[in-house]
Amino acid sequence: MANQKFWKSKKLNELNHDEWEALCDNCGKCCVIKLINEKNNELFYTNVSCHLLDTNSCKCKDYENRKKLVPDCVKLTPKNLSQLDWMPNTCAYKLIHEGKELPDWHPLIQKTSKDSNMEKYSVAKRVISEKDINMEKITDYIFDWEKEE
Ligand code: SF4
Ligand code: SF4
User: Fold this and answer.
1) Of the ligands numbered here, which is closest to the C-alpha atom of 86?
2) Is 29 in the pocket of ligand 1 (CB under 6 A)?
3) Is the CB of 24 inside a 6 Å radius of any atom of ligand 1?
4) Of 21, 34, 64, 146, most Cβ neighbours within 10 A?
5) Is residue 20 in a domain?
6) pTM (2 d.p.)
7) What's the total number of domains in the chain?
8) How far is the CA of 137 from the centre of ligand 1 (A)?
């Protein structure tokens, strides 16, 4: 069981398994295809998702086996926080790692409210699966999620 407001009193590497999982806001932004400009390392997000993402619920279709099925999947753990560089600025792990507060719309903050704004920050129903596009045209799908929030 996750303790109340554990994210305020513990560092990321002190969280237990349930707390670690509860911190994820399920926005799905870590599951969209990202592109890197090799000349200057600029990172671009797209609105195309990994084939294992359920684009409606925004959940991984096989979370337990994700790394086996999608070797490129970034499995964030307390031991590979350098991977946070890839994560969106709204990512709860990134925010806590940088000593920032969770936003008002985060599920842990909104737990008791029915009026969550989460849809605005989630990729659910706003992405196309990589299996449904011509991946040679992936640059056509570059998408600025932060601009949409
Ligand atoms: S970006 Fe961060 S908070 Fe959002 S789903 Fe991925 S790991 Fe969870
Ligand atoms: S395998 Fe699952 S968790 Fe990993 S990127 Fe794909 S949908 Fe996301």
Assistant:
1) 1
2) yes
3) yes
4) 34
5) yes
6) 0.89
7) 1
8) 26
Report the alpha-carbon distance of residue 86 to residue 78 in Å, rounded: 15
> How many angstroms is it from 33 CA to the middle of ligand 2?
10
Ligand 1 proximity of 88 Cβ (cutoff 6 Å): yes
pLDDT, tens digit, for every residue of 2-61? 567 999 999 999 999 999 999 999 999 999 999 999 999 999 999 999 999 999 999 999
Residue-number span of the structural domain to which 78 is assigned? 6-148
Q: Is 70 in the pocket of ligand 2 (CB under 6 A)?
A: yes
In a domain, 1, yes or no: no
Pocket test residue of 52, 58, 131 for ligand 2, highest count of atoms within 8 A of CB: 52
Minimal-distance CA residue to ligand 2 atom 4 = 73
Mean pLDDT, rounded, of the chain = 91
Question: Has residue 70 been placed in a domain?
Answer: yes
Structural domain includes residue 49: yes
Report the sign of the C-alpha dihedral through residues 139, 141, 147, 149, in that order: negative
